[in-house]
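2024-03-11 09:14:02 DEBUG pipeline.ingest accepted 1 chain
2024-03-11 09:14:02 DEBUG pipeline.ingest length=411
2024-03-11 09:14:03 DEBUG pipeline.predict start
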Amino acid sequence: MLDGKRILLIVAGGVAAYKSLILVRRLRERGVSVRSVLTAGGAEFVTPLSLAALTEDKVYRDLFSLTDESEMGHIRLSREADLVVVAPATADLMAKMAAGLADDLASTALLATDKPVLIAPAMNVEMWGHAATQANIALLERRGVLRVGPGAGDLACGETGSGRMAEPEEIVVAIENALAGRASGALGVSASGALAGKRAVVTSGPTWEPIDPVRYIANRSSGKQGHAVAAALARHGAEVTLVTGPTHEPDPANVGMCRIETAREMLDACMAALPADIAVCAAAVADWRVREAAGEKLKKENGGLPALELAENPDILHRLANLENRRPPLVVGFAAETGNVVAYAREKRRRKGCDWILANDVSPGTGTFGGERNTIHLIDEEDRVEHWPTAGKAEVAERLALRIAGRFAAA
């Protein structure tokens, strides 16, 4: 999707500038030509040599450089790209953009460009929440500037809150959206609505199967991937119902939420969400439950272990894929494996009767469960395998949403 595209990357001053180096690598891996502008503040955190080595191009810094202006003036610099990306975008640089100032190469290039601009803000939580910053953001978005992030979490200043620069993989997704004309304003707002009019049900997270009022059977699923899938489908215009087990993930925007705990509750919620055009079963449903959960906390008696009789939970993916009348036209499952990943996933797709399976390795060393990245192998209805590169879960979700949109467009 990005192969052959040209990006002008402006790196402003901030600790998050180190992420810009990772962003360059991710873009170069996808065949993108990256040319960079490094502000004086940015040079306090990353070196021109680092950027030059990763972009394999010259780094531009000085507005009044006789050599640079004769070889590549700021007008050409800003217009020979398909997209201008500012990462990190500081409060200072966004204020200059809003006011139309042009006192250095970065701000001058931004004022002179006729190409779309995508910003990835990064700053202290109080700076981000300040009325001046929020007014500048609102003004820039009204002018058509695109934005990805910031996220919330631990900040370099030691505080916690909003202001954390988006991860490189998230920025890659935003760049794809911008270049495809799908994004407007903050990341995630779909302009094309490729899935408009489609209904989707997505499952996410673990299930908790009670042993007694205190204990339960569960797994290590965080819900990050399922929530990201729901968000991506909604961005592309689908009406999404997210059926989720217990997680710490925030609710995705523009998504209907249904919170459950057990596998049987998840199945009931999925059935209630039908009819749907798309079903994506990303939840890690517990395979077994205690046949009869105790009404009171089980006690140790003479050091013995309680006898727990297990029963099999309903197979939600199989149920949805084999409905006679209300089967969604596209049913997608996930296969979490710890070995023979593709072979087991192929067999699972045939056994479950779903259209696609997204296989991933969840062995302890991979960090997939609870982590931010995923490595996907998609097995389609023809038993063909697509090996996707390791990416952030938001990028995986966006890629899946685009794949789904393409499936319906071709139907």
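2024-03-11 09:14:41 DEBUG pipeline.report The longest helix spans residues 393-410.
2024-03-11 09:14:41 DEBUG pipeline.predict end
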